[in-house]
Design a protein that fits this description.
Blueprint lengths: L3 E4 L7 H11 L8 E4 L11 H17 L7 E3 L4 H12 L4 H5 L2 H6 L6 H17 L3 E3 L2 H21 L7 E3 L34 H9 L17 H14 L11 H27 L2 H29 L4
Parallel strand pairs: 1-2, 2-3, 4-5
Helix pairs in contact: 2-10, 3-6, 3-11, 6-7, 8-10, 9-10
The chain binds adenosine-5'-tetraphosphate (AQP).
Adenosine-5'-tetraphosphate (AQP) binds next to helix 1.
């Protein structure tokens, strides 16, 4: 069983990425599991190239410092030639209607949208199929894309010959959905304009404390786990529970101030080793380059045979 997941460098990694994804990836035990920084996916909207390069490097360092085995890591663009080739084969296996039906394209697309926004689910299928991933842990918003990868794998195999593993979407084990601290009606996001509600993994302890102390609560002045009626307080309880391995329903705090102070302590401790690991890694560019190159070599080795077979069966190369 090979699992595959990615994080897009659309901004700095935040507490939600850490609690909902990265720390689970660090417990991954499949020898062929692969986690990658999906920098090619960040190009589907307007972006700044030097910033993209720097965020990609920073995210790779965050993944390593989070404890993910470096042998399971890579940067997507290091395989851009292999992925570009397979994407073309898969685009020629996919109908326009299938791509245009994707709800994310329907939500963000339009005549001015980049063509890459329409075709990026096919690139995602190439990510999955090139590595022979059998399990793809995704949230609801990405289920449709894994379905597309399944359809394309089955269609290619039936039309030209068996080469692709048909992947399966798996729902990650009740991953915490961390909410924005100032707008708890929406999830914490990398690309949110107002950073006040987002705790970034690399924020310094003082800033983390300040952001959490300003988190939106309510006027009930009662610390209870009621996500429907007290979403801000529930979010803080969930964050505390996730950091301390407890259940949000079992927690008691006398005041909102006491809750916020405990949450800040827990988050600072949770993120401290990552921040320190990233500082060390970014101060040693040669080591990060070595990790990146080794990851790219391994991923390419796994991909080449499958890509060559697909091109041959498709009647090209
Ligand atoms: N708030 C969150 N709580 C829990 N998990 C989260 N993830 C993202 N936000 C939260 C998980 O992090 C992994 C990587 O995310 P992604 O790069 O695929 O992008 P995303 O889900 O769209 O994350 P962001 O941070 O909100 O980015 P933007 O702002 O660009 O949309 C995924 O496993 C995701 O579930």
């Amino acid at each position: 069983m090979t699992r595959l997941s990615a994080i897009t460098p659309s901004g700095h990694a935040h507490l939600g990425n850490h609690l909902g994804a990265l720390r689970h990836w660090a417990r991954s035990d499949g020898p062929d599991d692969l986690y990658f920084v999906s920098d090619l996916h960040a190009m589907t909207v307007s972006y700044n190239p030097p910033r993209l390069r720097s965020l990609t490097r920073e995210l790779l360092a965050v993944l390593v410092a989070s404890g993910i085995d470096p042998s399971r890591l890579c940067v997507q663009s290091d395989l851009v030639r292999e992925l570009g080739a397979l994407s073309w084969v898969l685009e020629c296996t996919c109908s326009y209607g299938e791509a245009a039906r994707m709800t994310q394209f329907k939500a963000k697309g339009g005549t001015a949208a980049r063509l890459g926004l329409l075709t990026y689910p096919v690139l995602m299928a190439a990510d999955i199929l090139l590595q022979g991933a059998s399990k793809v842990p995704v949230g609801d918003d990405q289920l449709q894309h894994v379905e597309l990868a399944r359809s394309l794998a089955r269609r290619f195999n039936a039309s030209y010959g068996e080469v692709f593993v048909v992947p399966e979407a798996v729902t990650p084990p009740t991953a915490a959905r961390v909410r924005d601290l100032t707008s708890p009606d929406r999830k914490m996001s990398k690309s949110t304009r107002d950073a006040a509600g987002v705790v970034f993994v690399l924020d310094d302890p003082d800033l983390i404390r300040r952001k959490i102390s300003r988190a939106v609560t309510d006027s009930l002045d009662e610390v209870a786990y009621r996500p429907e009626t007290q979403p801000g307080v529930a979010n803080l309880l969930e964050i505390y529970a996730a950091c301390t391995g407890t259940s949000p329903r079992d927690l008691t705090f006398p005041t909102y101030a006491a809750l916020k102070s405990a949450v800040a302590d827990a988050v600072i401790e949770e993120l401290r080793p990552i921040r320190s690991g990233v500082t060390t890694l970014l101060s040693d560019p040669a080591e990060l380059d070595r990790i990146r190159k080794a990851g790219a070599d391994r991923a390419r080795t796994r991909a080449t045979h499958r890509l060559d077979s697909a091109l041959r069966l498709a009647g090209v190369a």
